[in-house]
């Protein structure tokens, strides 16, 4: 059973999932932030992928994304930072980001790198469900049990 399903099975009423934008407030603090969140009782973490046009987000996340990009965060660096995360962190981790940077990286390559880092799932808010079902579900299914 994957970590997300296990979390909901063992603790269905008291789950706290936290989002933060990778590379914010400082470029090299991503792993440290994840460790601190887990240590302080967070149940699951959504790691935000910074994007230059986060249209579905409010001003706080827009500003965090802008700052992370200015700090130099990009997907390859994020994957480098996360490559050994599972040696320390046991709670479910999800990547949350817009479709554009994921497609630039390559959808299957992105899924593969997430899986290699121990990421449990993805949230892509601007990926229409119909498009996901028709074009991406079979690819994502090779690497994840859950795509939100």
Characterization of this structure:
The chain has a 5-stranded parallel β-sheet. The chain has one domain: TIM Barrel, CATH 3.20.20.70. The protein is an alpha/beta fold. Strand 4 (121-123), helix 7 (129-141) and strand 5 (146-147) form a beta-alpha-beta unit. The protein has helices at 3-10, 30-39, 59-71, 75-82, 99-105, 107-117, 129-141, and strands at 17-21, 44-48, 93-96, 121-123, 146-147. It is globular and about 35 Å long. The protein has 7 helices and 5 strands, in the order αβαβααβααβαβ. Keywords: Amino-acid biosynthesis, Aromatic amino acid biosynthesis, Lyase, Tryptophan biosynthesis. Pathway: Amino-acid biosynthesis; L-tryptophan biosynthesis; L-tryptophan from chorismate: step 5/5. This is tryptophan synthase. Its EC number is 4.2.1.20. Pfam families: Trp_syntA.
Overall structural domain count:
1
Q: How many runs of DSSP E, i.e. beta strands?
A: 5
- The parts where pLDDT drops under 50 for at least 5 residues are none
Order of helices and strands: HEHEHHEHHEHE
The strand line-up of the biggest sheet is 1-2-3-4-5
**Helicity, as a percent range:** 40-55%
CATH superfamily: Aldolase class I
Name the beta content range. 5-15%
CATH topology: TIM Barrel
Briefly, what CATH class?
A: Alpha Beta
Give a short account of the largest sheet: 5 strands, parallel
- Please state the second-level CATH architecture: Alpha-Beta Barrel
Whole-Å distance between the termini? 17 Å
| Number of DSSP helical runs | 7
What radius of gyration results from the CA coordinates?
A: 15 Å
**Average of the residue pLDDT scores:** 93
Q: Quaternary state, please? A: single chain
- Overall form: globular
Structural class by SSE content: alpha/beta
């Amino acid at each position: 059973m994957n970590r997300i399903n296990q979390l909901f099975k063992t603790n269905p009423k008291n789950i706290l999932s936290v989002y933060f934008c990778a590379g914010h407030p400082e470029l090299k603090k991503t792993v440290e932030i994840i460790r601190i969140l887990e240590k302080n009782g967070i149940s699951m973490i959504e790691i935000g992928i910074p994007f230059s046009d986060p249209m579905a987000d409010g001003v706080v996340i827009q500003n965090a994304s802008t700052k992370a990009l200015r700090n130099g965060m990009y997907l390859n660096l994020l994957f480098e930072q996360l490559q050994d995360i599972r040696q320390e962190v046991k709670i479910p981790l999800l990547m949350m980001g817009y479709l554009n940077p994921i497609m630039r990286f390559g959808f299957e390559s992105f899924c593969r790198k997430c899986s290699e880092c121990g990421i449990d799932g993805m949230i892509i808010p601007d990926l229409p469900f119909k498009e996901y079902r028709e074009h991406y579900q079979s690819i994502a299914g090779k690497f994840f049990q859950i795509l939100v």
